[in-house]
Write a sequence for this structure.
């Protein structure tokens, strides 16, 4: 897409960076998350057991590369209708006896802009604006507890007649002690260390000039804890802190002040601590990850859900937001394909300002292809780490959605907003690993109407289409009545209003799901399951307050399934 950049749009771009990221620095795109897990866990994965965020947050995490993987990540940044997409392609590979390697190419496109002369608005030149980088990382395990990694990144940017090229280095450590059954992992990294970044400006007329900006360096420290893990799924929690190593002071000559050249990040690592911890960001995340579930005939299925919080320090109160992500994968004899979504679903501060400024929700997508190394020999082998299942139940269902509270109706002295009850349609897969326990993957389509009344007269009727993706756990508690089940989990819902002028065009929210029902097996292999479900859609509480509230609904569902 071609954009005509003017001074206003360029200033908006700079303002966006300062609002969304903790501190201004050169080439901040190097710190953007490039994986579902990194973004979903509160925009940091320094201690997470994943390799696809290693080249951003901790190169030592390359040790979690289980098979050769190719990853493509797309993030559609948009500001005031300007499209600024970020795309990255990365490859990860373990060379036995040598170590773990990762390479990445990243491209941030900012469209095209024109240069005009001082005497006429006619274009005298046109430029493509972009920021790009190439990274290569290496990690090695020195024991079953300790690993280290390093990375080099070469980055370049071209914004009209302003250009730069720079080299950065990153290093990280990963420590998982044998104590506590290896449930804890400590991650530490220093990313994008370098001297100050030099920008050169070459005007159409006159001599060229240059300026220095701080490098986008950061210190990351985090701990990952897995309170529960079995052959079928795991739960993980991460808490992390990140501090940007940016040191640039003002100097004074008499009554006049000026900005000094920024320090290198190596120097800032020692000197930039007077504002700590007010200038640090906190990251918290929950990971609910399924292991590959054996579907038979060499196929397996996996699902991952992430939810996180990014909290800016006291100096950066505009940068708080909540994130989430979901990932689906299908594997055939070790060849694994995954596809997922991640994004921001709630802005904690300055909600109305930021939402009007950005094209919310700034969604991102990731696709990966993992290759069983036996592919290269021409003989596929079965995956070694799939979890066997007792049976699988695939169901289709229909239900009545009953909204309650402010999700059903809100009133004022002159008008009211109502969202009538409606039917929903769902597809469900229940993966039973014994008679009492199963993992549930759900897909629900729920169209409804939002109606506005003025003095009891309907003046507006807007149809919404919603899609719900759920990751749940089901348990049958009673021995004497085995069909009874209770169920709970997390999910993501996508709203899409059927009107082109809607802003935002669509939204995503996180959900909490609880249900009770009975899986009646009297006609087995046909399973009939009546169910009462409660869903709380986490949303902004009030018109301007950033507090989290809930849009609540009950669903009376009947599902008909087939046992495989």
């Amino acid at each position: 897409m071609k954009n005509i950049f003017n001074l206003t749009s360029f200033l908006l771009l700079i303002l966006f960076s300062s609002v969304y990221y903790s501190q201004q620095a050169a080439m901040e795109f190097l710190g953007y998350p490039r994986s579902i897990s990194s973004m979903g866990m509160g925009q940091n994965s320094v201690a997470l057991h994943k390799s696809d965020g290693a080249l951003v947050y901790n190169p030592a995490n390359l040790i979690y590369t289980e098979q050769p993987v190719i990853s493509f990540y797309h993030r559609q940044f948009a500001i005031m209708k300007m499209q600024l997409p970020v795309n990255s392609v990365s490859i990860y590979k373990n060379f036995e006896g040598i170590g773990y390697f990762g390479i990445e190419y990243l491209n941030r496109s900012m469209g095209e802009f024109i240069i005009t002369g001082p005497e006429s608005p006619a274009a005298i030149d046109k430029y493509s604006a972009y920021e790009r980088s190439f990274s290569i990382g290496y990690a090695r395990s020195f024991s079953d507890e300790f690993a280290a990694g390093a990375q080099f990144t070469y980055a370049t940017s071209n914004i009209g007649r302003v250009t730069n090229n720079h080299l950065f280095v990153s290093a990280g450590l990963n420590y998982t002690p044998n104590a506590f059954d290896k449930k804890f992992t400590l991650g530490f990294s220093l990313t994008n260390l370098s001297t100050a970044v030099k920008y050169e400006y070459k005007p159409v007329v006159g001599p060229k000039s240059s300026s220095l900006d701080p490098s986008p360096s950061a210190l990351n420290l985090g701990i990952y804890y897995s309170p529960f893990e079995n052959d079928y799924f795991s739960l993980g929690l991460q808490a992390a802190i990140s501090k940007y190593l940016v040191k640039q002071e003002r100097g004074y000559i008499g009554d006049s002040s000026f900005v000094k050249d920024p320090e290198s990040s190596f120097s800032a690592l020692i000197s930039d601590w007077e504002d700590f911890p007010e200038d640090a960001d906190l990251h918290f995340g929950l990971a609910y990850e399924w292991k590959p579930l054996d579907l038979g005939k060499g196929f397996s299925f996996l699902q991952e859900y992430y939810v996180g919080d990014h909290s800016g320090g006291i100096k950066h109160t505009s940068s708080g937001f909540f994130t989430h992500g979901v990932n689906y994968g299908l594997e055939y004899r070790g060849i694994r394909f995954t596809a997922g979504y991640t994004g921001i679903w709630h802005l904690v501060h300055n909600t109305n300002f930021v939402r009007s400024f950005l094209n919310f929700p700034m969604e991102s997508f990731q696709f990966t292809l993992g290759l069983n190394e036996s592919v290269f020999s021409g003989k596929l082998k079965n995956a070694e780490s799939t979890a066997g299942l007792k049976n699988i139940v695939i169901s289709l269902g229909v239900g009545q959605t009953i909204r309650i509270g402010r999700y059903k109706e809100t009133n004022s002295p002159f008008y009211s907003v109502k969202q009538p009850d409606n039917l929903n349609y769902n597809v469900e897969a229940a993966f039973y690993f014994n008679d009492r326990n199963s993992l549930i993957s759900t897909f629900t389509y729920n169209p409804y109407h939002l109606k506005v009344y003025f003095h009891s007269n309907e003046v507006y009727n807007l149809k919404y289409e919603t899609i719900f993706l759920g990751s749940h756990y089901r348990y049958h508690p009673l021995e004497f009545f085995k069909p009874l089940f209770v169920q709970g989990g997390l999910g993501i819902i996508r709203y899409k209003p059927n009107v082109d002028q809607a802003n935002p065009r669509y939204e995503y929210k996180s959900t909490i799901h609880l249900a009770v029902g009975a899986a009646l097996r009297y006609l087995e292999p046909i399973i009939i399951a009546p169910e009462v479900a409660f869903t709380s859609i986490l949303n902004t509480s009030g018109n301007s307050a950033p507090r989290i509230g809930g849009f609540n609904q009950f669903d009376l569902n009947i599902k008909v399934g087939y046992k495989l």
